[in-house]
Structures are given as C-alpha cells and as structure tokens.
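Every protein is a chain of amino acids, and every chain bends into a shape of its own. The protein below has been through that process, and both of its lines are reproduced in full.
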Amino acid sequence: MFKDEFCHISTSDALEGLEVINAQFTDTTFGKHAHAEYVISVVDEGIKQFHHKGETHNAFKGDISIISPDELHTGSKGNGEGWRYRAIYPSESQIIRIYHDVFAKEGLPTFKQSVIKDERLSRQMQMLLVKLGSGAESLDLEIHWELLLVKLLQKHTHQRGHSELVLSKAQANIALARDYLADHFQQKVSLDDVAQQVGISKFHLIKEFKRCYQLTPHQY
C-alpha cells in the first residue's frame, strides 16, 4: 500500500459473518476482478472511479455503488487525491432470502444502476456501519440491516409489476411479538428468534411493530 492508505476488515457474527471493510486508497488501482458476494459500498470522501457493466462510473461522497456476484469491475481514484469508503459484502443467500420473503420472488435480483444517488438510503447504510463499528446489540443490528436491504431491493432492482406486501398475518401476530419481547427482556434475543416465534418475516415484523407501537422491536 502507498502512504496514507489503509484497509481494515472485520466481520459481524450477528449478521451471519457479514464482512465489513473500512478503507482509504490514494494511488492503488485495482484491475478487473470479481467477488463471490455482493459488494455494497458508500464513499465517505473523495471520488471512487470504477469500470462496471461496460461503462466507467464515478461515485462521489455519499454515493452508494453496488456490484453483484461474479461481475467484473475495476477500482481507482477519480479526480483528486483518492477516496475513502466503507463496504459490506452480503452473500447470495442473504439477498435471496430477503428477496423471497418480501417480494415472493425466486433467484437473484438485478440492480438497475452501478452508482445510486439516494440520500435516505445512504444515511441508512451509514447508520448501519456506525452500529457495526460500535458493537451495537444483535437485535439493533439486524433491524438496521434488514431495513437497508429491503429499501435497496424495493427502489433499485428491476421488477415486473408491483409486489404488494402481504401484511395480514403480520398484523394478526404483532401482539405475540410484543409479548415475546416482554417475556424475554432480560435475555439477548435475535430478530430471527422473534420472527420465528410469531411466524412472519423479519421485515414484516419490523414494519408492523413500528406501525403499531411507534418503536422498533429493539427500542421496545
């Protein structure tokens, strides 16, 4: 690495071993390569330039870039002195599970853009990254993780028609989730634990719990 460059890698046990990178590069360039996982990154400073899907892209501060598994891409600085970014590497199975639970669709989704300019989504991702770095509780991490991926899939994938979320079962069982949390408030429970107890998806649990009680399950 060149002077002032760094690359810190960590994993989150709470999120199925999710790999997280916090890095800064000034002069390093990355030739064509691919990953086995998705790469979702947000630029903190500078300009990240990369070639992906036959085009050269520039990601500026706050922009999110997304690359699907096995897609060839490069990486280098744009104008200026390099770029600093943070990235997460969700597995295919994590994306497939959420895509199926929320949209009732099979397979891997296709994303519309290589660079996403979405301030709300960017803030959501940065909040998750802060919590990952601060050792937040598992339930809190899972909620922010689930919301980030669902919003990303809802707004930025190619979908035929509009998939309505089926919430009737979630609405009927949300009180059971509240009771379960109340009965186990002294224990560390996961979002998956609660969702399995009441028989609904994790996203529906978060959405309906907040609608009913104006709190996330973790806040409750």
